[in-house]
Amino acid sequence: MEENKDFIEMIVGEIRSAAKEEVERILREARREAERIVEEARERAKAIREENIRKMLHEYRVRLRREIAPRKLEIRNRFLMERHKMLTDFFEKVSREAISILRSNEELYSRFILKSITEIIESIKTDHIIIHPCSVDQEIVAKVLPKVIEEYRSKGRVIKLEIGAPIDCRGGLVGESADGREYFNATLESKLIQIRNEIFTNILVSLES
């Protein structure tokens, strides 16, 4: 009887020991599974957080570009206007100085008028041309015209240069054919505009590059 009791207690002890080990194994696996679930949840939370941050940054950049675009355009337009005004003012100042120097030298200005009349004759393909001098240049044009006519006559071309009504300009002259079909502007203003456009183009190209 005593032996049976000891045997039963031994069996119970074995069962308890096995049960304890099984419980501990189950608990270890449960902890590992819980840790895995927690880690996965942490990774998912991190991924979601990073995705939300990316979305927020993208939305912010889009909104910022949308808000800044008109401002950038306004600043660019203002810059272009200021740059154009600065260049225009500078060129106008230089032009005034150049005209003053040109007009102060009678020989130099006479050569300019002579060259301008020659350009008109070469551009207007007719032998009867009306010359409209700037009002300030009527006297010098009347002086130069006979020389031009004689020069062309010596080359075998007979032309008729007639002085027409004066025009309002800073210097130079305008020529037109007698029938009014051809026209050539040889005023200082037209030449300065050509020079200004060339200079502005070169400056703007250099600024953009």
Give a short synopsis of this structure.
The chain is α+β, with helices and mostly antiparallel strands and 209 residues long. The protein is built from four helices and four strands, in the order ααβαβββα. The relative contact order is 0.08.
Write the SSE topology.
Blueprint: H1 2-104, H2 106-123, E1 128-133, H3 138-154, E2 160-163, E3 172-177, E4 183-187, H4 188-208
Parallel strand pairs: 1-2
Antiparallel strand pairs: 1-3, 3-4
Helix pairs in contact: 1-4, 2-3
The N- and C-terminal alpha carbons lie at a distance of: 111 Å
Q: What is the ordering of alpha helices and beta strands? A: HHEHEEEH
Classification by helices and strands: alpha+beta
Beta-strand percentage? Answer: 5-15%
Shape: rod-shaped
Low-confidence stretches: none
What is the count of distinct domains?
A: 2
Total helix count? 4
**What's the helical proportion of residues?**
over 70%
Per DSSP E runs of 2 or more residues, the count of β-strands stands at 4
Strand order of the largest sheet: 2-1-3-4
Largest sheet: 4 strands, mixed
